[in-house]
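This entry is passed on directly below:
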Amino acid sequence: MTGFVSPYAGTFPESSLNTFPRRDELLKTLRLQYAELRPWADAFDLVALQEVDQALRTCLGAEGLGPDRWVESAPHVDARGIPVDSTTAVLLGPASRWRIRGKAHCELTMPTGSGRVARRDHCGILLEGTFPLVLCSVHLHPPSGTAAYLQYLEPLKEMMLSLVPEQPGHSPALALLGDWNCSQGQLKELMAEDAFWSSFQSVAPMEATAFESNPCATGDFMLFRPAAPSGLQWHCQAEAEADFGAFRAYSRAVLADTVQRLPWLRALAASTEALQQVRLLERQLEDLKPKRTVTPEDGVPSRQEVDPATTPSLSRDRWRHPWRPPAPVRQEVVSDLLRSVLQLHGQLDRQHQRLKQVQGGLGMVLPKSLDTSDHRPLVFEGFLE
């Protein structure tokens, strides 16, 4: 059996640009050219993925796969409390020796320092094939302490157990693959007090699997619990460069690209704000145009005739002081102002469109592949002794 784990997401280097929402906009508009991954992924029985976004879904052709081959969690909620296009997923290859027989979801929550709660949905699947298997692709938050961490993992534990059939003799093996954001040793210590979690064995390469900017450089591995003693052994190999040279080069290219585009992004944001202010000024000038002309000879209109809240030619104070004549309305002044603002609006809109066109064409085309990820793809192969 073979399996695969790959977060497939780059980490933006620490810099003055690493701020919300400017960073989000810069990263969202990167001109990426993705390598063809589908043939590579189709060679495996199962592919477990983390940090799945729309670009990766498109690259893998997920939209054309049915629920018997593609299983995905709900979007995650980041530390700001905002849903983001990032999920975990499992892809079954076209020649996979497993078939999906059941699914379940759970949500792992982690309070943040800002008083908000980060949430990561996970999906477990019951598989039937070479041997019964319950599998989950995981992307966990870094641990904070033993008791709190076991409580954090409780929904994941309950989900995995809910997929275990109750019939005697049909107990499946359990596997959780992905990014644990802590080392195997640290995880073993945290799970030592829980009988369920301490029944697993970890499978990982004997080298770094994640770039140094991640919470843990060896945080990618598999936890596996066999259904019964079977002699099944695992071999794990980390692909891509061990020194993350391609990722370093990719990160430098991303930084250079964003530094080039940042002034244009600021100018576009200022242009957008200017257009919004001009539209607001138009509405306010339209409100200054009288709905009917009121003269001193008209006397004080009744409240049924003119609403003081919506008639700018009448002062609100006039209802308290009916002897005060209304201020003269210079309709030609309002009309001239409105005409000038409309002309300005047209000019701003044309320049805004030109700015968008120029800004959209800026930036270099950045090649994105497995080698340029901040996590190395792990290949797990099982064999019987």
